[in-house]
Write a structure and sequence with these properties.
This protein has 123 residues and is mainly β. It is built from no helices and eleven strands.
Length: 123
């Protein structure tokens, strides 16, 4: 059974940093694109960042230059380094794994999801 487990969320002041991690078990994802999404209360789940198995990265405009997605060489852990956090970054953050070769900006492109971790940025 595939499991994705996020960790690293919490409460931080605006301008601060957090590092989220996502550990996968059940199978290796070294050849899959992996991504992060976030969902604020009453809003849709939005794309944050993705990284391909080759290491190509993609970011939403709202986090470009502030967040960095990475993955370890084994491909079974991914990270999201978040810096210069803003109150509008407050959301539940989800990691996800895609079995597709395109469309990584949409939740529908992902097949496996973590349970989410809360990030709260105070002003």
């Amino acid at each position: 059974q595939v499991q994705l487990v996020e960790a690293g969320g919490g409460l931080v002041q605006a301008g601060g940093s957090l590092r989220l991690s996502c550990a996968a078990s059940g199978r290796t994802f070294s050849t899959n694109t992996v991504g992060w999404f976030r969902q604020a209360p009453g809003k849709e789940r939005d794309f944050v960042a993705a990284i391909t198995w080759r290491g190509n990265t993609y970011y939403s405009d709202s986090v470009e230059g502030r967040f960095t997605i990475s993955r370890d060489n084994a491909g079974n852990t991914m990270y999201l380094q978040m810096s210069s956090l803003k109150p509008e970054d407050t959301a539940v953050y989800y990691c996800a794994v895609s079995r597709r070769n395109f469309g990584w900006g949409a939740p529908g492109a992902y097949d496996y999801w973590g349970q989410g971790t809360q990030v709260t940025v105070s002003s």
